[in-house]
Amino acid sequence: MDTTAFNHDLLAYLQASPTPFHATAEMAKRFADAGFIALDERSSWELEPNQKYYVTRHDSAIIAFTTGNGDLATQGLRMVGAHTDSPALKVKPNAELTGQNYFQLGVEVYGGALLNPWFDRDLSMAGRVTWQDKDGNIQNALVDFKKAIAMIPSLAIHLDREANKSRSINPQTDIPPVLCRVQGDDKPDFRQMLAAELESQQLKPAKVLDYEIFFYDTQAPAILGLKDEFIASARLDNLLSCYTGMAALLEAEDSPYPCLLVCNDHEEVGSESAQGASGPFLRQVLERICDTNTELTRALQRSVMISTDNAHGIHPNYADRHDGNHGPIINDGPVIKINANQRYATSSETSALVRVLCEQENVPVQAFVARTDMGCGSTIGPITASGLGVRTVDVGLPTFGMHSIRELAGRDDAANLSKVLTRFFQQESLLP
After folding, report:
1. Which tens digits make up the pLDDT trace of 140-193?
2. InterPro entries in the record, alphabetically (predicted)?
3. CA within 13 Å, CB half, 270
4. What ranges make up the beta strands (E) of 229-303?
């Protein structure tokens, strides 16, 4: 694998994916370009052996799969999971605010965002708009303003001398972004702004009905560091995993074994939605891949899910926040995530499989366990394992600044994980 080419394409994917809708659309485009056949959940499916398919739900989640050449009940499925959403600022339904002759938009905090880094950044907006055409039909379209149109200015230290010691953030009053000045009653109408964006795509909206719009940082993803060792970008959690899973499935698309990638939405807010991991999306697709419930149950008992989500790299300034024997290092390989209380779904069996796959690809592997006196996050892994009864392992790539507006990962880690996932998709024997 050419790691340089891999990383440049990863950066292009990150740049094209400012929201879960765009991340899903970009994956769908790439799968279609590779010959995967688009499926519609509202239509009947006639799946064939040795074929490639993909299906999206609500524009923000995707499942891509290959059928292989054998019996699913005896071969099982090689499944990789990730999620398309990231913590962000989401525009409210009645968002327009004016004060002191400035136009702002009210926002909600989506997920567990680290808010301090959102200040003093060049922000744009993107997302999905639902609109009505002249015939009364409801339509959806994606928009991306692309250029920097807003900022959340910090309060100057002269006006808050304790800022470096005790400043806290009120998400209702402190973070509405500033977009422009206003004069008198000349206040922008946000829905009219969205309509103009639709018209720039040669669409003809009669009315903008509603929207799911997020602010995002316009600074492009980059490879950085004195030795070019790091990747810096927004939304590495968890588009890094979406990309590695997609790249692996495309690389292993001719595997004779059934393979599947699922990228759910809404993991950052609990996964309980039609397109979240707690919803029925994956099970309903699997029920259509397998002919009967008995076949599905047999297939799942021969299947493995690798849940891929980022891991906390040990921060040199805060090393005491980690267990001394379980501090993942950036560029030292994928991380097996383990938790005694099932916040991660890893077992000794599934962990062993990942270790064997890494050894086969000559890729180093690490382990993460949170300090016993600290809690840890969770992933789609336990949700999928409990919902399907499939053996699951949680794996991630070490990162700094998780849930910040800009996160940091390793130049080598994503390419190495993709190699391991490709081997997994091509593996004949999984677990006893």
Report:
1. 999 999 999 999 999 999 999 888 888 899 999 999 999 999 988 788 999 999
2. Peptidase_M18 (IPR001948), Peptidase_M18_dom2 (IPR023358)
3. 2
4. 230-233, 259-264
Residues of the domain holding 121:
88-217
- Cα–Cα distances (Å) from 408 to 313, 394, 400, in that order, read 10, 20, 5
Measured N-to-C along each axis, helices 20-33 and 236-251 cross at an angle, to the nearest 10 degrees, of 10
Backbone angles phi, psi at 189, to 5 degrees: -105, 120
- Number of Cβ within a 10 Å radius of residue 367: 18
Q: What is the pLDDT of residue 184?
A: 80
Same-domain pairing of 403 and 277: yes
| pLDDT higher than 90, residue 71 | no
Establish if 227 belongs to a structural domain.
no
For residue 247, give the amino acid letter: A
Q: Which residue has the tokens 């060049």?
A: 122
**Across-strand partners of 30?**
none
58 and 78 share one domain = yes
Lookup: tokens for 202: 């040669």
99, pLDDT greater than 80: yes
Domain match, 336 and 372 both: yes
Query: Using the 8-state DSSP alphabet, how is residue 166 labeled?
Result: H
Q: Is the pTM of this model over 0.90?
A: yes
Residue 431 lies in a domain: no
pLDDT score at 167: 85
| DSSP notation for 207-249 | EEEEEEEEEEE-SPPEEESTTS-EEEETTHHHHHHHHHHHHHH
Domain co-membership, 249 together with 180: no
Domain assignment present for 110: yes
The helix (H) or strand (E) run that includes residue 88 is strand 88-99
